[in-house]
Hints:
alpha/beta, 4-stranded parallel beta sheet
Amino acid sequence: MKLLKSLLAAALTVTVAACSSTGSSASSASSIKEEVNVPETVTVTDHADRTVEVPTNPEKVAILGIYPLASMLSVYLNSAETIVAMEPASANAAKNSVLIDLYPEIGNITTDILSGEDLNIEALVALEPEVVYYNAADKADLEKLENAGLTAVAFSPTKWKFDVVETYRQWIGLLDQIYPSSSKNAKLVDQYSTDIYNMIQETVAGVEQPQKILFLYQYDENAMITSSSRFFGEWWAKAAGGVNVASDVQAETANAKITMENVYEWNPDVIFITNFTKATPEDLYSNAIGTDDWSTVKAVQDHRVYKMPMGTYRTYTPSSDTPMTLLWMAQAVYPELFADVDVRAEVKDYYSQLFGITLTDDQIDRMYTPNAAASEMN
């Protein structure tokens, strides 16, 4: 506790000079332009390496195909009022997380920009967004956006080899250009993530036999999908001082399909289940999914199967909860090395510093025992 509080104090010292003002809501965006005399537009290079002229401090934005960004932008601006549209996957996560408590307005944001899995360009145009933030990999959506005359800025979840902290840093760096006023929240998350990461690396440096970790990204009776080296699980495993058992699975995309035979061969020490699937630790303990038998798997025998937290978003991806998730994960992987860490107390302290609120015990319970609805993508 004392070590982590000192890390946070250092982070606050680093950021305090840059935190005298913040672009905190749609209602303040225009006044920010007047107060600091920022230009009406800024030219940025987005994550698809496109040069785009964008309105500074835009008051109406839509977010397409980059699921964590709605929560990240809300925390960045300390408001969700500028978001006019986002995807159902983002909305469901928001409504089943602490984000809706922080920013109730996020529950009213439309998700009608999709028709099934396809972009409803007419509905999007009708909202008159000043800028659309989209997934850099989706060239088909970009073509539709440009043909409709919409300003589009690409964000990439893959460009930085699924390094959660670096991806967050790059996303924030792009937002910083579009919103010239400094964001206290973003700088605090970045500094704290770095400090927590470094502290964990020092703590686990002497481990002779790293724990074997399996991530279940999606799991039901039809498929079991994990993280190969080409997904966020690779970074999480290494950051927590373990090894990703599926690192060598050949997969060109994030969807690395595996079978129970793979699991038996790897025999992981620890299993983490994301919030992109309804599966729970209890499902593995009771063999409740399909005909799979988990009873001989070490992680199941030792009751070391964990559902990842649901903070401001699904914590498997970059988010403002990354430092707390990393601390929680490190303790789950090496409980004896982090026995003196009170994660609940640290989360309360972190949210107090980040948002100026005191989380209730019920809110923390919801974060660390998320319900199945949080995994809904439609």
